[in-house]
């Protein structure tokens, strides 16, 4: 019999399953609704022979040695530094907006004056969130902040979230600060790499353990039921632990209404050209309805004469129709999440982990770290 049941074979569920199996030697059942493992970092080789991320680009970057070391047990790496350009006023400039972007877009004398002011005030290398830069109190800096706000953030954020930047939790736009350096990389973390054979292969290796039984194409509703403070598995009371990584509102039948998510309409295109763009991702803050185009060949080069592109069109998440990608935090949605947490607390052996179950904008490295921590705190 199983002592642990895990709902979801994304990164959170797979790390938990791997730890329980390899460290405790206990039997784990993993149920996954989709036909594949890996959750939203699932990748596969397409008709062009190019490894593509089916749920949108996933770029692993971390400062955590623990995370990188742990994942290295399941994958070899290809070193890769992510670069993003923003299509602004007909030019493609580095994002996050930095001192090079400034020089490319504004007249030289103005750019030099602004650079001196910014560096004098915040220091060379500083990373300043756009919402903070707008409050600087200095007219020159506020001029620049307003420019970057309009050219980079306002319409991208409207497309991505249906909201203005100032209506969002500052944590969201703070992910892409204005950077006072000439480093054109999107991330500056110590470890930046793509799994050599992709994320799916990495997750498959995590789950490849005699103590782990994986059931694909299986909804948790088919095997689990929560009622009267008890968890039931296939009709009988279950005395082990359930680790749930899916949507918490769905788990409790949307009793308090839905927790909102943004989703993506992902349009893949095969182009008859060797390369389409200079870097893996080009953001389109103002033009077009999509937010960005990713060309996957930059992540995993092949000798294919064609290339595969992905355009992302953000949209509202509708259960059963598209995937829940990004939690939309507001005071109201956080309060609603808290109410669901109250319900979850009635089940002592129910553990919630991951972007959906915790309603957090976790990056991949955050999820791995979180799962390792939950394993130590709640399972060991
Ligand atoms: N953002 C923006 N313009 C950009 C890039 C990002 O306004 O060109 C804002 C937007 O609100 C976005 C957030 O910063 O949702 C975080 O961007 P990130 O690239 O981290 O998003 P992800 O890759 O997770 O979709």
From TrEMBL:
Keywords: FAD, Flavoprotein, Isomerase. Pfam families: GLF, NAD_binding_8. It comes from Methanothermobacter thermautotrophicus (strain ATCC 29096 / DSM 1053 / JCM 10044 / NBRC 100330 / Delta H). One of its GO terms (cellular component) is cytosol. Its cofactor is FAD. One of its GO terms (molecular function) is UDP-galactopyranose mutase activity. Residues 151-361 form the UDP-galactopyranose mutase C-terminal domain. The keyword Isomerase applies. It comes from the Archaea. This is UDP-galactopyranose mutase.
């Amino acid at each position: 019999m199983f002592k642990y049941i895990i709902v979801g074979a994304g990164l959170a569920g797979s790390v938990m399953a791997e730890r329980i199996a390899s460290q405790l030697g206990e039997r784990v059942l993993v149920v996954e609704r989709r036909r594949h493992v890996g959750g939203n970092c699932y990748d596969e080789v397409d008709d062009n022979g190019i490894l593509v991320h089916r749920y949108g680009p996933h770029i692993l970057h971390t400062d955590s040695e623990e995370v990188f070391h742990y994942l290295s047990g399941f994958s070899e790496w290809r070193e890769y530094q992510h670069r993003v350009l923003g299509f602004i006023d007909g030019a493609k400039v580095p994002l996050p907006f930095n001192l090079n972007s400034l020089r490319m877009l504004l007249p030289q004398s103005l750019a030099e004056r602004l650079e001196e002011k910014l560096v004098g005030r915040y220091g060379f290398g500083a990373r300043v969130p756009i919402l903070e830069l707008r409050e600087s109190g200095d007219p020159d800096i506020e001029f620049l902040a307003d420019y970057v706000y309009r050219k980079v953030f306002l319409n991208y954020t409207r497309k991505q979230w249906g909201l203005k930047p100032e209506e969002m939790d500052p944590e969201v736009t703070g992910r892409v600060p204005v950077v006072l350096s000439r480093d054109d990389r999107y991330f500056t973390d110590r470890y930046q790499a793509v799994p050599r054979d992709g994320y799916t292969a990495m997750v498959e290796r995590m789950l490849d353990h005699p103590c782990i039984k994986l059931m694909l194409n299986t909804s948790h509703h088919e095997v689990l039921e929560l009622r009267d403070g008890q968890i039931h598995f296939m009709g009988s009371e279950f005395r082990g632990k359930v680790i749930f990584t899916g949507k918490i509102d769905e788990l409790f039948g949307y009793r308090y209404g839905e927790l909102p998510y943004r989703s993506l309409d992902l349009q893949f295109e095969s182009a008859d050209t060797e390369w389409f763009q200079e870097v893996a991702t080009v953001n389109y803050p103002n033009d077009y309805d999509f937010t960005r185009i990713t060309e996957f060949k930059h992540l995993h080069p092949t000798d294919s004469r064609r290339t595969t592109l992905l355009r992302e069109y953000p949209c509202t998440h509708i259960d059963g129709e598209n995937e829940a990608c990004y939690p939309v935090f507001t005071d109201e949605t956080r309060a609603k999440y808290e109410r669901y947490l109250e319900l979850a607390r009635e089940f002592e052996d129910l553990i919630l982990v991951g972007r959906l179950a915790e309603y957090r904008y976790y990056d991949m490295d955050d999820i791995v770290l979180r799962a390792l921590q939950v394993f130590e705190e709640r399972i060991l």
